[in-house]
Amino acid sequence: MVFTCRQCGSCCMYLGDYIVIERQTGPFTFECCSVSTDTTFTAEVDPDKRHLFPDTTFPERHPSACRFLRPDGDLVRCTIHRDSPAQCKFYRCTVMRVTDPSGKPVGTVTGTLALHSDNPALRKVWEVVERLRPGPDADAERWIAVFLQERGYRVD
Ligand code: SF4
Ligand code: SF4
After folding, report:
1. Does the CB atom of residue 21 touch ligand 1 within 6 A?
2. Predicted local confidence at residue 56, as pLDDT
3. CA neighbor of 98 nearest in space, from 150, 149, 135
């Protein structure tokens, strides 16, 4: 289960108050603060995204979004991917996509190991997962995948 970010931008749409630009120091360089950890960092817009950054239509339309987010065709991308804070780099919105034995997608599991599903059968199985699984770490992730697979679910 390797998480692949689809670059949809959803997770960054309300982070404008958390990733704050304190000062612009050059055409593409900024002194910033990651408010949740109270850490400052220097960010330079990635060279391959400099053609996207100057168009401010997106941040003007989405005032709550992180100031570094920009649309790029069908994607909505972080323009400081190289310099973004650790919590951005390691964020995983979804760690599992669950498909039932008939091949129907029935739910997703978030990076915090919470189930998003309106499928009654899977929700019932999840009640058992919640009771039995080990602590919230990589072991738990593997344990949950095996538990679901043993009950006929496919886990990607
Ligand atoms: S981490 Fe998830 S929500 Fe955020 S951009 Fe990637 S796919 Fe979208
Ligand atoms: S720095 Fe990049 S990854 Fe982090 S919130 Fe902003 S756009 Fe998203």
Report:
1. no
2. 96
3. 149
